[in-house]
Design brief:
By secondary structure, this protein is an alpha+beta fold. It has four domains: 110 residues, Probable inorganic polyphosphate/atp-NAD kinase, domain 1 (Rossmann fold); 133 residues, Probable inorganic polyphosphate/atp-NAD kinase, domain 2 (Tumour Suppressor Smad4); 144 residues, Fructose-1,6-Bisphosphatase, Chain A, domain 1 (2-Layer Sandwich); 113 residues, 3-Layer(aba) Sandwich (D-Maltodextrin-Binding Protein, domain 2), CATH 3.40.190.80. The chain has 13 helices and 31 strands. The strands form six sheets. Strands 20-19-21-22-23-24-25-26 form an eight-stranded mixed sheet, sandwiched between helices. The chain has a six-stranded antiparallel sheet with strand order 7-6-17-14-9-10. A six-stranded antiparallel sheet has the order 13-12-11-8-15-16, with helices on one face. A hairpin with a 2-residue loop joins strand 25 and strand 26. Helix 7 packs antiparallel against helix 8.
């Protein structure tokens, strides 16, 4: 989950430990001051009644790591991002201190926090179907008679390959998040937990000195076969099961992931390990977590346009998440009768996220969006947004749709970002600079011959462009997204593009990217294309790699003479 998506937060759902009621009063007051609803849920209460899937929600746990783990268990099935406030003592998961809570909340709901995806572990067996964010521990059962056997033997297989037998107190299958305590006790590795897709098999007080923790892919299929009775615990006892001899437990990475919110007020993971466990690796270092996480370049030293490009990229990628989720539903038989509702919801969610992020970062900038009323600011800058360019494609399950975000200075386009959610392509440029796809610079082609060229066409009502060029070129393709057409021209995937009529939001971002890549842009008469904020009248646009432009113009003008 992208951190910018938190900018659409409408309510806070707080899970409280018994001694955190005073802290919740502070949270509730903060939420009211910021126009958000807040609801408290105790550890003995159900989240289901308080959760509203129609409203964007941020989960906050007020307590220690136990409360945080309980929150993961309750909130992860609903894909709710979770922020942990440490009202406990020794805490590796809830790492925001109470005195920093208000500031951390503000950072989160303004979309400036990050969201870590945490690998979880799934355990299946007879009468067992559970997931955990820390570990699944399979241990010996203490005997009633002190003279009886006090160890257990567990046979382990990974992807069908026999690893061996573990004899001792048992073993743990731990995620990177749960690696800390278990690995330390077994002299194994500590793994950085964020966005880490692995599991580790950790022996617990094994009787064989040569046995070491084993790190495997999160996709690995782990089978543990008990040789005698054993006890299974998920996340320290949130799920418990007694295992009989010769019982088989299957473990692998869970398909769902926990979404953990991290702000600049969090104590960093390595700092927590060092300070709370006395690890000497960072001794003598006074740098606090905020100094390490803060941007190395002060915002005052970064140009407005470059800063805007960064924010636009984050906003576009954040908007891409709900678009992908809703796009996956449009061809589902369950939703075919209300496709228009899904498309409307997709437009709304993407637009709300983008405009909220922009207004948080640039409150004095104007915003023109296809999906909302014009917001007039006091600055010389105006943002022009199409949150879902290619609506028809989206509605039919076609992946060729995009998020287009442009910025103008005194009505001249100076920055453009176009994001393609289904392919994760990110195009961007600033006026006077280079054009990029991701981190790779892109340029137009240098083809001069029509018979070697590929062309793109947008709205072409009389089919003139297609008729003239289909047989003379390698083909004419209609993408259904003007922003995408300009980006594919910029990246060399096409040599020319024709749009019979465009609105400002169709092209504000794309023309910056195309020009930065070396494209030539004119109207059908060969006059340089001039951007306008007029939303009542369409403008035609001919874009090419440059060398092909005279040939394309000649055919368009010939068609005008014959018409």
């Amino acid at each position: 989950m992208h951190g910018r998506r938190l900018a659409t937060t409408e309510r806070i759902l707080a899970l409280l430990s018994p001694d955190a009621e005073g802290l919740y009063d502070q949270l509730e007051a903060w939420a009211a001051d910021h126009g958000l609803d807040a609801t408290a849920v105790g550890l003995e209460e159900s989240v289901e009644e308080a959760y509203d899937p129609e409203r964007s929600t941020l989960a906050v746990t007020l307590g220690g790591d136990g409360t945080f783990l309980e929150g993961i268990k309750r909130f992860t099935p609903h894909e709710i991002p979770q922020l942990g406030i440490n009202a406990g003592t020794l805490s590796f998961l809830a790492r925001v201190e109470p005195e920093d809570m208000d500031a951390a909340l503000a950072e989160a709901v303004h979309g400036r926090a990050t969201v870590d995806s945490r690998q979880m572990v799934a355990a299946e067996g007879e009468n067992l179907d559970a997931t955990g964010i820390n570990d699944v521990m399979i241990e010996n059962v203490p005997p009633e008679n002190a003279f009886d056997r006090k160890v257990t033997t567990l046979a382990v297989f990974v992807d069908g390959e026999y690893v061996g037998e573990y004899e001792g107190n048992g073993l743990a299958v731990a995620t990177p998040t749960g690696s800390t305590g278990i690995s330390l006790s077994a002299r194994g590795p500590i793994q950085l937990p964020a966005n880490n897709r692995t599991l580790q098999i950790v022996p617990l007080h094994t009787h064989s000195m040569g046995v070491r923790p084993l790190v495997v892919s999160a996709d690995a299929d782990i089978e543990v076969v008990t040789r005698e009775q054993a006890s299974l615990l998920v996340d320290g006892g949130r799920v418990q099961k007694m295992l009989a001899a010769d019982e088989v437990i299957r473990l692998t990475g869970a398909t769902e992931q926990a979404h953990v919110v991290r702000t600049s007020y969090d104590e960093q993971f390595m700092a927590a390990v060092s300070s709370k466990l006395g690890w000497g690796l960072r001794s003598g270092t006074d740098s606090g977590p905020r100094e390490l996480l803060a941007s190395e370049v002060p915002e005052s030293d970064v140009s407005t346009v470059e800063h805007a490009r960064t924010i636009a990229k984050e906003a576009a990628q954040g908007a891409g998440e709900p678009l992908r989720e809703l796009h996956g539903r449009v061809e589902d038989v369950t939703y075919k009768t209300n496709k228009s509702d899904i498309v409307t919801e997709a437009d709304y969610q993407a637009n709300r996220l983008i405009t909220t992020v922009i207004r948080n970062e640039f409150p004095d900038h104007s915003i023109l969006s296809e999906e909302s009323e014009f917001y007039e600011g006091s600055s010389e800058y105006t943002w022009v947004i199409d949150p879902l360019d290619g609506t028809g494609n989206f509605a039919h399950g076609n992946p060729q749709y995009s998020v287009s975000i442009g910025m103008l200075r005194n009505n001249e386009p100076v920055m453009g970002v176009v994001y393609v959610p289904e392919t994760d392509e990110l195009f961007h440029a600033v006026a006077g600079g280079d054009a990029y796809q991701g981190e790779t610079q892109i340029t137009t082609t240098d083809r001069e011959s029509l018979d070697e060229s590929m062309l793109l066409s947008g709205w072409d009502p009389d089919g003139a462009f297609l008729t003239h060029f289909y047989n003379e070129t390698q083909g004419v393709r209609a993408l259904g997204s003007a922003a995408l057409s300009l980006c594919y021209l910029a990246s060399g995937s096409a040599d020319g593009s024709w749009e019979y009529g465009t609105y400002p939001w169709d092209v504000a971002a794309g023309i910056v990217i195309a020009r930065a890549a070396g494209a030539r842009l004119t109207d059908r008469h060969g006059e340089p294309y001039t951007f306008t904020m007029d939303t009542e009248q369409r403008k035609d646009l001919l874009a090419s790699n440059g060398p092909l432009h005279p040939l394309l113009l000649a055919h368009l003008q010939e068609n005008d003479r014959l018409a």
